[in-house]
Amino acid sequence: MATDFRSSLPNVPAPSGNSAQQYINPGQAFRGDQGASRLLGRLNRAQWEDWKARFRPYVRSLADIAQDETAPRDAARQASQSMGLAFDANQQADEQWRQGLGVSRDSRQQAADEREADVRRRAAQVSAGNQARISALDRQQAILAGGMGLSNIPDKVMDQ
């Protein structure tokens, strides 16, 4: 089964809970000797709970993508199959174009064209598979290195 990387992060559920709606009274800073200290503690705890509710699911999703050992192989297979389907469609279109013009080929010309198309198809499939595998590995390395963290998640996902 091929992995669809475009939909991996948007499938993370929206945060539940009311940590973003928590009210902290700033007047608490003036209550007693430890008021400001207690207020800062409550603010830090609220920020931590909010981070866990909002961002932890995305971090976990990125970690799952980065640790998926089958992702490069799946991406290569999907790209190779897609390239093969594109070549099939192009070959059908060429044949229909020839038929529309009334052009016919003898068996030697047809065999030569098929050999050439087969070589091009296989080369394109291998190239597409290699590029997809490299891209998947680069994506995983960027996530692990921190270059593809929360700041690179599309705005529409983070505005939930």
Any overview of this molecule?
This protein has 160 residues and is mainly α. It has one domain (5-158). Helix content is 66%, strand content 0%. Helix 2 (56-67) crosses helix 4 and helix 3 runs antiparallel to helix 4. It is rod-shaped, with a radius of gyration of 28 Å. Mean pLDDT is 80; it is low at 1-7.
Outline:
This protein is mainly alpha-helical and 160 residues long.
List keywords for this structure.
single chain, 160 residues, mainly alpha, 5 helices, 66% helix, 0% strand, rod-shaped, disordered N terminus
Overall form? rod-shaped
**Domain unit count:** 1
Distance between the termini: 29 Å
Helix content: 55-70%
Mean pLDDT: 80
Q: How are the SSEs placed, and which strands pair?
A:
Elements (H helix, E strand, L loop, with lengths): L34 H20 L1 H12 L3 H31 L5 H39 L9 H4 L2
